[in-house]
Amino acid sequence: MFRRHGLRAVAAACCATALFAPPALAGGDGPGAPGAGDEYFPGYGNGGYDVSHYDIQVRYQPADDHLRGTTTIVAKPTQNLTAFNLDFALTPKSVRVNGLPAQFSQNGTELTVTPAETLPEGSLATFVVEYEGVPSTVEVDGLNPWIRTSDGALAVGQPEISAWWFPGNDHPRDKATFDISVTVPDGTEAVANGVNTDRSSLAGWTTWKWRTTKPTATYLAFFGAGQYEINQRTGAFGQPYVSAYSDGLGELEGPAKASVERTPEVLEFLSGVLGEYPFEAQGGLVSSEGMNFALENQTRPTYSHLFFRDGANTSVVVHELAHQWFGDSVSVDTWRNIWINEGFASYAEWLWSEAQGTGTAQELFDHYYAQYPADDPFWQVTPGDPGKEAVFDGAVYDRGAMTLQALRNVVGDEVLLDIVRTWVAEKKYSTGTVEEFIQLAEQKSGKQLDDLFNAWLFTKGKPPVGEATGVPASALRIQAAPPAAVAELDRTHALLHHDH
């Protein structure tokens, strides 16, 4: 879902010889690019290599927030690589490339590594980084996404968090599989992505091992350490199900469990709409402090306790689980394409409401269309290109969902279902753009949809009523009694895109 973003910093912390080489020449040896080329966040991610696997081993002490780690990265150079960058904010102690010591320097969250030998294009490469630090004290350009709690920490954030606990290629374009090992003092629990493969104790410390075998974006890898009740059982599709609830939830424990424990049911519903669930495990984690948002961490979304203040809230569960398809399996190719994540996850809430009989998607569309007058700032954000400062604006969510209902009105239920299922099947474990989705929608519908998508995604102002825009006349009528789902949707989205 969301975390306030920040630009890469220039606070230098040199750890070895400074090695800032010029860009690589086409066809020759050279360094990888220090960014992935994202127009909103040009410093995020890196070029020159492709990661296939991360092995992350961290030892975390809640008492002083000290983290010590060793991360091994398995990668393949995409060019003859003389130097490369990793995104990392903590202090490296050593870097080895293919077993040999490498020179390195650090500037903000850019860790530049120069191996002893050029890495041939297409070869097997391993990067091993040893490091330590106190993540809650590391600030880069005013940004610190690390969440320290009274009993531990939450490595949860979007679009950045990984640099505060492991080095990597921090952009959704470069997904990888993960082994995450978290060692904490006995009596402390540690939860991460995927399947819990082992737990063992030695000399007062317990190591929790987690594995996810499907491609995962770096910001969707997480861990939560603290005092948790952990429940493990069989979930939907016969998969491992793990849920974790902070001991400090108090009176919110009941509504939190009444919501998150419906995860298998919600996944069964969503798979009936979107197609096969793309991952190997499921569950969720609810924190009692430290965060006021929810995030779709792959296989195991993380929820703030605040979502359950007014009782059970299945809308937020539906939203984060829909992200497993839209955001996790099919990720943004660049952060400009955030509508593909948030618009679809929000519309999934409308479909759930329709199925539960608490308000049809059209009734919800009509409500929100009438709720925002033409001069409301809501209509000044274009979900298809919201701008760096409005990546998580409310319009990306609600106007984004309205776009899909408008598309449904123009192409019909069966065609929309075909578009969505084809999209998640063809883009599975990769990335997509808004333009690619529009092209698919036109292909499947046999219609020219420029008027609809331009009005809803790329033009400031309230889309007018009309057949081409998918806005029916019913949207002009303000209902005396809004759909029953509205209250839950409103309080859910108020937190989802709250700028904290």
TrEMBL record:
Single GO MF descriptor: zinc ion binding
Residue ranges occupied by any Aminopeptidase N-like N-terminal domain in the UniProt entry: 52-220
UniProt EC number: 3.4.11.2
Annotated Pfam families: Peptidase_M1, Peptidase_M1_N
Keywords carried by this UniProt record: Hydrolase, Metal-binding, Metalloprotease, Protease, Signal, Zinc
Protein family: Belongs to the peptidase M1 family.
Protein name: Aminopeptidase N
Reaction catalysed by this enzyme: Release of an N-terminal amino acid, Xaa-|-Yaa- from a peptide, amide or arylamide. Xaa is preferably Ala, but may be most amino acids including Pro (slow action). When a terminal hydrophobic residue is followed by a prolyl residue, the two may be released as an intact Xaa-Pro dipeptide
Signal peptide: 1-26
Biological process, per Gene Ontology: proteolysis
Known cofactor(s): Zn(2+)
Source species taxonomy: Bacteria, Bacillati, Actinomycetota, Actinomycetes, Pseudonocardiales
Domain annotation Peptidase M1 membrane alanine aminopeptidase: ranges: 312-456
